[in-house]
Amino acid sequence: MNRRIVHLLLPVLLSTAGAVPGAVRLEGVRHEYQRLNNCGPVTIGMALSFWGSKLTQYQSAPVLKPNRADKNVSPDELAAYARSQGYAVHGGAAGDLALIRRLVAAGYPVIAQTWFVSDQGGMGHYRLITGYDERGGYLWAYDSYNGPNIRLEYTEFDSLWQVYNRTYLVVYPKSREGEVRKLLGDRVNAGWEDQHARAVALQETRTQPRNAFAWFNLGTSLLKLGDAVGAAQAYDQARGLPVNRAYDPDRPGGMLGNWPWRTLWYQFGPLEAYYKVARHGEVVSLASETLRWAPDHEESYYWRGKARAALGQRNLALADFRAALRYRPGYAEARAALRELQAKAAR
């Protein structure tokens, strides 16, 4: 293990944790290029490598993705995997550049969930942030697709990060829990980040009312706080705004919403919110649209099954739950839904 923090330039004052250097680059991460749809397994492996782990995607992907073609490994799944390897993890939303600088300056790489546009179109992607340069206005990242030491301009990065409500993970040895909690401040308090995420998203809908991602994030934040009605309304606003072609260059025609067409491959808040406000037909339509392009997408099977069960379409719902479990045998929510529906049918 060869970890090293390279501090450059003069300190930048940050209100939460005093001064940090104006530029930092962490050394000691082992870069790995991803195989198809493996950015999650690779990125968590790169983060663990900073702390001495030798795991690669060839060990992590079979655990994280029993279905090799799985399009999505969630932040929660990455966090659970890191914990299974003996590490501690903090995952949160509504991160900001000051938080990244604070963590990196203290020696903690940060996983950021972002949007990504390549020759394959727009899609979700994880990046491991390993440095920053405040004077130059950019971050350094290890990217499983583009390579090590990729430079990301602050403004561009933040726009791509906003697509995922600025979700982040920091992985660290359990022995450093106290230090990390101090760096995170209020973010470690139960419910604080949920409220903060709602406030940030609400402010951005006011300052950027035609930004679909601000409205989408508001929906996600309200849903997490238990307001499904408000969440559904915010998602409706996001769906109705003009298509962002820069983020959606390969968009097929006739899609149901105006958010990037692969959005529901990675984020399922609209399906949950619409289900909770009894818009079951829309859940079926949106999930079916995803399955047209990604026929092994287990989360879409799950939510379509829930909606079909609510509509009284028992046999179709049972088939959906079984399909979700076929592609992810450990999908606890789908298994519980299947058992519940089977029990009702047996009465």
Summarize the model shown.
The chain has 15 helices and eight strands.
Description:
By secondary structure, the chain is of the alpha+beta class. The protein has 15 helices and eight strands. The protein has two domains: 185 residues, Cysteine proteinases (Cathepsin B, Chain A, Alpha-Beta Complex); 137 residues, Serine Threonine Protein Phosphatase 5, Tetratricopeptide repeat (Alpha Horseshoe), CATH 1.25.40.10. Strands 1, 2, 3, 4, 5, 6, 7 and 8 form an eight-stranded antiparallel beta sheet that branches. 48% of the residues are buried. About 3% of the residues have low confidence. The radius of gyration is 20 Å and the shape is globular.
Major pleated sheet: 8 strands, antiparallel
What integer value in Å does the Rg equal?
20 Å
- CATH architectural group of the largest domain: Alpha-Beta Complex
- Write the element-wise H/E pattern from the N-terminal end onward: EEHHHEHEEEEHEHHHHHHHHHH
What count of structural domains?
Answer: 2
Q: Could you tell me the number of beta strands?
A: 8
Distance between the termini: 59 Å
Beta-strand proportion = 15-25%
Shape: globular
Q: Number of helical runs? A: 15
Helical amount: 40-55%
What's the level 1 CATH class of the largest domain?
A: Alpha Beta
Mean pLDDT across all amino acids: 93
Question: CATH topology of the largest domain, which one?
Answer: Cathepsin B, Chain A
| Class derived from helix and strand content | alpha+beta
Low-confidence stretches: 9-17
CATH superfamily of the largest domain: Cysteine proteinases
Keywords: Signal, TPR repeat
Domain Peptidase C39-like: 29-145
Organism: Meiothermus hypogaeus NBRC 106114
TPR repeats: 298-331
